[in-house]
Amino acid sequence: MVEMTETAAILHNATPSSLVLLDEIGRGTATFDGLSIAWAVAEYLHDSADHAAKTLFATHYHELTELAERLPGAQNYQITATEREGQVVFLHRLERGRASKSYGIEVARLAGMPPAALTRAREVLERLERYELDVFAEEEAVAESQRAVAASAGSSAVEEQSLSKAASRAARRRIAAQSSLFDLANQKVVDELRSSDVEKLSDAEAKAMLWDLRKKLL
């Protein structure tokens, strides 16, 4: 509510002479709610003749980068980083273009997160990325054909195509996360079963273990 109250004040009071700094608008609510709000705020500050202002909008919603493809006054910039010998190096340099990846796990490592938690985070990330690529590999071909159709149509078709692409990417990420995390949780049950010395379990102990494992399945 505090974030939305401040955002509403900005949208009502900004003028073409204002400087607006927005940081992670919409991240405090559900994925689609937050993305929708962030998208609408960016469009409003770009399109409104009375409230259009020089705006810096920092966000982790990669879908918002689609706006730069159709709003003439919008541009994507990234703070650059690189990897050297398995370590992330922050270059502290602003460059044109959208970020190709994030370094959240490396930041967690720099913050002192325990190695076991970092290892697990990397396993989860790898599964999420692999699932997303495997299940939705054909989407880019479909998107390419949509871009070709939109290019030959009017601005409304381009806008609809941008929204469709952003929604598809957000939905893909959410589905991948849900499915992959279910798989990861169930894989831990399988690993626990494999590591059990069933030969040494009594009938009662075996039954109790099966009940416990079944409760852990998703």
Briefly summarize what is shown:
The chain has a two-stranded parallel sheet with strand order 1-2. Strands 3-4 form a two-stranded antiparallel sheet.
Order of helices and strands: HEHEEEHHHHH
Strand content: 5-15%
Mean pLDDT: 79
Please work out how many helical segments DSSP would assign: 7
Q: What does the overall shape look like?
A: elongated
Using the CA coordinates, give the radius of gyration. 23 Å
| Class per helix and strand makeup | alpha+beta
Question: What is the number of beta strands?
Answer: 4
Strand order of the largest sheet: 1-2
Roughly how many Å apart are the termini?
A: 34 Å
Low-pLDDT regions: none
Largest sheet: 2 strands, parallel
Estimate the helix proportion, in percent.
55-70%
Descriptive terms for the model:
two-stranded parallel sheet, 7 helices, 218 residues, 57% helix, alpha+beta, elongated, 4 strands
SSE layout and pairing:
Elements: H1 2-13, E1 19-23, H2 31-47, E2 54-58, E3 77-84, E4 87-96, H3 104-110, H4 115-135, H5 139-151, H6 155-195, H7 203-216
Parallel strand pairs: 1-2
Antiparallel strand pairs: 3-4
Helix pairs in contact: 4-6, 5-6
Description:
The chain has 7 helices and 4 strands, in the order αβαβββααααα. 11% of the residues are buried. It starts with a helix and ends with a helix. The protein has a two-stranded parallel ribbon with strand order 1-2. By secondary structure, the protein is of the alpha+beta class. The model has no long low-confidence stretch (mean pLDDT 79). Helix 4 (115-135) crosses helix 6. The longest helix has 41 residues, at 155-195.
